[in-house]
Amino acid sequence: MRRIDFTNTQVASSQTARDINRSVVLNLIRRRQPISRADLARVSGLQRSTVSLITEQLIGEKWVVNGPTGRLPRGRRPTFLRLNERRAVLVADLRPAQTTVGVADVNGKILAQEAVPTVAEPWTMAASLSERMCHLMRSHPELVFEGVGISLPGRIDLTTQRLVFAPNLKWPAFDFKGAIERATGMRVELENAANACVIAEVWFERAERLRDFIVVSIAEGVGTGIFLNGQMVTGSNGMAGEFGHVSLDPDGPLCTCGGRGCWEVYASNRAALRYYHESSAAPDGLSFRDLLALAEAGDELALKSLDKMAHAIGKGMRMIAAGVSPEEIVVVGELTRQWHRFGPVIEAELAAGVLVGKPPIARPAEGSMARLRGAVALVLQRHFGPSAPALGSGVPAAREGTAALLQ
Q1: What's the chain's Rg over C-alpha atoms?
Q2: Residue 282, φ and ψ in degrees, nearest 5
Q3: Which of these, 75, 104, 346, 40, lies nearest to 218 by C-alpha position?
Q4: Residue 269 belongs to a domain
Q5: 146 CB contacts (<8 Å, ≥6 apart)?
Q6: With bands split at pLDDT 50, 70 and 90, how would you rate the model's confidence at 389?
Q7: Are residues 272 and 318 in the same domain?
Q8: Which of 130, 135, 94, 134 is closest to 115 using CA atoms?
Q9: How far apart are CA 72 and CA 69, in angstroms?
C-alpha cells in the first residue's frame, strides 16, 4: 500500500514533471543503450518532441553523446544515444586488511584499480586514500569525475553521515567522509558494503526486476543488505540488516562486536580460517584466498573447513527466510568462486529451515566487483533521480581534469 503523507501539501509543478521526464529518459538510455530517440519515445510513452528536447538537454549537459547511426529500409537513419563514458567516479572498497581504490566510468566499468593497506587510524587511512584518489585523477586527465563512492564494513549514521558501527575496523569516532571531501574537493558517498551490493544489483544487474531480495556479504564478517517492496531498508538509525551480529549461541566464540556466538563467528572468512587452524599446523599468515587455493588443489582439511563455513552460512540464512521471506538471497564474497561445490550445501541448509512454501533462491552475485560497482551507483543515483543537478549548476560534485570539455 502506498503511504500518503497528509502533512505535505506541496503540489507538483511543471518543473517537477520536467525533472521526472528527464530522469525517465536518462535512465532508459542508461539501461538500453545504444537507443534511438524514436525507441525512447515508444518505450517511455512520451511525445517525440518531448524526448527530443530532453535528449538535447542531456547532450548539452554532457551526460549523453550521439553514438552510431542505424540503418532502415527507407527514411531518415536514426542516431543512437549512449551515456558519455568520459564521466567517471572514484571508488573504494574498504576492508579491515586491504582497501581497493579505483576509477570507474558511468556504466560501472572499472578503468583502473589498485590496493592499499587499511591502517588502524581512520585519519591516517583517510589521508592515504585521498592521496591515491588524487593520483588517479591526475593519471586520467581526460575524465570528469562526478564524486567519490566508498563501501565499507560498518553502518553510517543517517543524520551525521559518520561511521557509527564498524566492529571489524575498530575505528574510533571520526569524520571520515568530511576528511576525504576536504582532500579531494568532491562530494563523498559512504555506504555499508552489503547495502552497496544491493544498490549494485538494482543499478547494474537483473535485480531491477525484483521487488524483494537480500544481499549476504561474506568477508571478514557477515553483512546483510535488505531490499523489500522495491526499496532499500535502513531502519530508523541505519542499522537494519545486522543479522551477522545476531547471537546463535550465547556461549559461543567471542565476536568483534563484544557479543558471543554471533552468526559471523561461524560463517565468515575468519571462521573458515579458524576451522582450518584448529585442525592443522598451518602458519598464521594464511589468507582466505590461500584457503580457497588449497581447496581447489584438493586439500581435505581446507575442503572440510569451507564446507563447515557453508553449512553455517545456510543455517544463518534461515533467520532471513523466516523473518523477511525474500524472493532471492544474493551471496557476495570470495567463497562464490567455488559456488559449484558449496552453493548446494548453503541451499540445502536454507531449504531445511523454510516454514511454508518454496525457499528463497540462493545465488552468487554477478562478477567479483559488486562492492566497487555499488560505490559507483552511490554517486550516480544522485544525478539520475528526478532532482538531479546538471553540470555547471553550482553543485561541487564534479571535478574536471585537464580536458576542459567532454566530447
Answers
A1: 23
A2: -65, 150
A3: 346
A4: yes
A5: 87, 88, 89, 106, 186, 379, 380, 383, 397, 398
A6: very low
A7: yes
A8: 94
A9: 10
Cell of 201: 544489483
For residues 41 and 68, the model is more confident at 41
Read off the pLDDT of residues 150-193 as tens digits, 9 standing for 90 and up.
999 999 888 888 888 899 999 888 899 999 999 999 999 999 99
The whole-angstrom separation of Cα 226 and Cα 368 is: 20
Number of independent structural domains in the chain: 3
Whether residue 141 is found in the same domain as residue 183? yes
Q: pLDDT band for position 87 (50/70/90)?
A: very high
Task: Report residue 310 as a C-alpha cell.
Answer: 557453508
* pLDDT tens by residue, 203-243: 987 656 788 999 999 999 999 999 999 899 998 888 999 99
Domain hosting 77: range is 14-83
- Give the span between the Cα atoms of 131 and 128, in whole angstroms: 5
- pLDDT greater than 80 at residue 2: no
Q: What confidence tier does 92 reach under pLDDT thresholds 50, 70, 90?
A: very high
Q: Check whether residue 213 and residue 331 sit in a common domain.
A: yes
Handedness of CA 36, 40, 43, 47 (dihedral sign): negative
Tell me which H or E stretch contains 130.
Answer: helix 122-139
For residue 241, the number of C-alpha atoms closer than 13 Å in the C-beta half-sphere is 29
Residues 77 and 95 in one domain: no
What is the number of residues in the chain?
407
The torsion of the CA quartet 180, 186, 192, 195, rounded to 10 degrees, works out to -170
Does 180 lie in the same domain as 124?
yes
